[in-house]
Amino acid sequence: MTGGFRELTRYKQQLEESECIELLKNTKRGVLSVLGDNGYPYGSPINHYYDEESGKIWFHGGKAGHKVDAMRNCDKVSFCVMDEGRHAGDEWFLTFRSVIVFGRMELIEDWDTIAGISRKLSYKFTDDDAYIDEEIRKSGPGTLMYALTIENMCGKLVRER
Questions:
Q1: 3-state helix/strand/coil string of 43-94
Q2: How far apart are CA 57 and CA 50, in angstroms?
Q3: What's the rounded Cα separation, in Å, for the pair 14 and 1?
Q4: Superfamily of domain 11-159 in the CATH hierarchy
Q5: CA distance 143 to 140
Q6: How far apart are CA 72 and CA 64, in angstroms?
Q7: Taking 60 as the threshold, does the pLDDT of residue 66 lie above it?
Q8: Residues of the chain above pLDDT 70, percent
Q9: Could you state, in order of their start, the residue ranges of all structural domains in the chain?
Q10: Is the dihedral of CA 60, 63, 66, 67 positive or negative?
């Protein structure tokens, strides 16, 4: 283990850091896992924004609920994304890339940060500024932003067969 994190067993399938970042930037959704109630892991699908400048992954959601309660109790989380995969020639199996990130989550309640990151996140889905402005105006006051500081990131190429 390096820095308290395990090394990839199938190291020949490991992705370069640049490929991991490209996946984080271009995938729209992943699964965020937290330490939930009674010590059970709690994973939920969520959209995200990877900010190259800060190196953080940003999420948004409601101000209350299982996920927020869990992050308030323990800031350690994991986040996993994967691409759509592809078939090599006429093979039946998929080959895809995945990235798992471990890090610590910070809950952000600053309105300017919420509005700015919400806008950047929205551009992954639409470039309709009027729609984005209305959504931020309407939903912003009930939104909490989460910033994931990456402590460990590992990606790999997976062949399903």
A1: EEEEECEEECCCCEEEEEEECCCHHHHHHHHCCEEEEEEECCCEECCCCCCE
A2: 4
A3: 15
A4: Electron Transport, Fmn-binding Protein; Chain A (2.30.110.10)
A5: 5
A6: 10
A7: yes
A8: 98
A9: 11-159
A10: positive
Paired residues of 7 in beta bridges: none
Tokens, residue 89: 């020639």
Tokens, residue 41: 């892991």
Residue whose tokens read 């062949």: 159
Distances from the Cα of 117 to the Cαs of 20, 23, 58, 112, 136, in angstroms? 21, 19, 7, 9, 10
Tell me the CB-side half-sphere exposure of residue 95, using CA atoms within 13 A: 7
pLDDT at 83 over 50: yes
The tokens for 101 are 């990130």
- Rg for the chain, CA atoms, rounded: 17
Which residues make beta-bridge pairs with 60?
145
User: What is the distance between the alpha carbons of residues 10 and 18, in angstroms, rounded to a whole number?
Assistant: 19
Q: Tell me: the pLDDT tens digits for 102-143?
A: 999 999 989 999 999 999 999 999 999 999 999 999 988 889
- The DSSP call for residue 160 is -
Q: Is 30 exposed, middle or buried (0-12, 13-18, 19+ CB in 10 A)?
A: buried
Helix (H) or strand (E) holding 30: strand 29-35
